[in-house]
Amino acid sequence: MNYNDPLEPAMIITKVLSKSDIVGNVVLPKAEVMSVLTRMNVNDQDLLNGVEVQVDDIMEDDLYTVTLKVSGIDKPKYYFGTGWSTMKHSLDLSEGDVLKLYWSHLDNKFVVLNFQYSVLPLMIPV
Fold first, then answer.
1. pTM of the prediction?
2. Which of 35, 21, 36, 22 is nearest to 111 (CA)?
3. Which end of the chain is more exposed for a tag (fewer CB within 10 A), N or C?
4. CB–CB of 105/28 below 8 Å?
5. DNA-binding region located at which positions?
6. Average pLDDT of the chain?
7. How far apart are CA 84 and CA 65, in angstroms?
């Protein structure tokens, strides 16, 4: 992924985490996931069984493997199952936090966009 190129808004998934997302599996916004799925090489049957995807935290240099699944046919719900618990604890996520992921179709993985910006103090020589 070239981090100097602008991000495609259609490849971003944003979710404000609820208590149930923290206690169990995180349910992802349907419209945003469906937009990302246009670039992933998966079909409905793959998602029913679960597809392992990588999630890259480039700030901490951590790579997570989570299972992206769908439940239900009439009203599908997309969620991260296996691997989500490890990822949420490592990212120190809690209720009310915003999870923001970018699907990098060239790298075939999600990239965490939850950057914690910090400013180094200005050092003035005396």
1. 0.84
2. 36
3. C
4. no
5. 20-118
6. 87
7. 8
